[in-house]
């Protein structure tokens, strides 16, 4: 074998080794990239598919009203009241777009309405009985407060009642018993005294 053939053979062998090493290195790098990409996809899917906790808290702050009347006309008995069930009450929110009404079929002394979250006052019109044409208007004045409930529920508005004004067709007077209007459905904020002969 001549020197020239030996040198050629060594170069060829060396070239095969380099090519094999580069091929193996390329395969290894591609495998590492594929594994890293797969791990990234799995982590992304798992983190995005976690369920949020459900919102189990009432999100809307409700103003709860109780309708009563005095048991007697005398000054001594003025502190004594009894619930007044309105037979078929109609409540209507007076808005810029007109009147949005709700009719309560069953007699009740307890009613719930909502306050406007875009203004510091709102008006509601109501009648004690759907056959009556005698309405009273309740005007509510309040302060709004943005309230964080939870991560699942987000934010809502709570209110602080300043005053309530009414007409006196069937209503004698209005008393704020709790100025804080929140999402607590058991708290009554307003007591409305009806005329005894409504």
Strand arrangement, major sheet: 4-3-6-7-8-10
Shape category: rod-shaped
Fraction of residues in helix: 10-25%
Query: Residue ranges: pLDDT <50 for 5 or more in a row?
Result: none
Q: What is the terminal-to-terminal distance?
A: 128 Å
Average pLDDT metric? 82
The run of helices and strands is HEEEEEEEEEEE
Q: How much β-strand is present in the residues? A: 35-45%
Number of strands: 11
Radius of gyration: 37 Å
* Number of helical regions: 1
Instruction: Tell me the number of structural domains.
Output: 2
Main beta sheet: strand number and arrangement?
6 strands, antiparallel
Structural class: alpha+beta
Could you explain the architecture of this structure?
The chain folds into 2 domains: 1-50; 62-194, no CATH class. The chain contains 1 helix and 11 strands. With 198 residues, it is α+β, with helices and mostly antiparallel strands. The protein has one helix at residues 3-48, and strands at residues 62-70, 81-83, 90-95, 98-103, 110-114, 121-127, 136-150, 154-166, 171-176, 180-181, 190-194. The strands form 2 sheets. Strands 4-3-6-7-8-10 form a 6-stranded antiparallel sheet, with no helix packed on it. A hairpin with an 8-residue loop joins strand 6 and strand 7. The model has no long low-confidence stretch (mean pLDDT 82).
């Amino acid at each position: 074998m001549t020197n020239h053939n030996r040198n050629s053979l060594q170069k060829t062998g060396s070239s095969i080794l380099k090519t094999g090493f580069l091929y193996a290195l390329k395969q290894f790098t591609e495998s590492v990239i594929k594994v890293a990409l797969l791990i990234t996809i799995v982590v992304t899917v798992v983190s995005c598919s976690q369920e949020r906790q459900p919102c189990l808290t009432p999100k809307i702050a409700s103003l709860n009203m109780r309708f009563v009347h005095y048991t007697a006309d005398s000054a001594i008995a003025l502190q004594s009241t009894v619930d007044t069930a309105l037979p078929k009450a109609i409540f209507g929110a007076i808005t810029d777009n007109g009147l949005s009404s709700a009719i309560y079929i069953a007699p009740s002394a307890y009613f719930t309405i909502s306050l406007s979250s875009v203004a510091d006052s709102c008006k509601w019109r109501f009648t004690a009985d759907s056959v009556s044409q005698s309405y009273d208007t309740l005007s509510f004045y309040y302060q709004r407060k943005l309230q964080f409930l939870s991560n699942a529920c987000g934010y809502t508005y709570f209110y602080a009642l300043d005053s309530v004004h009414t007409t006196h067709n069937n209503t004698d007077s209005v008393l704020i018993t709790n100025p804080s209007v929140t999402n607590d459905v058991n708290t009554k904020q307003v007591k409305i005294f009806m005329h005894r002969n409504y």
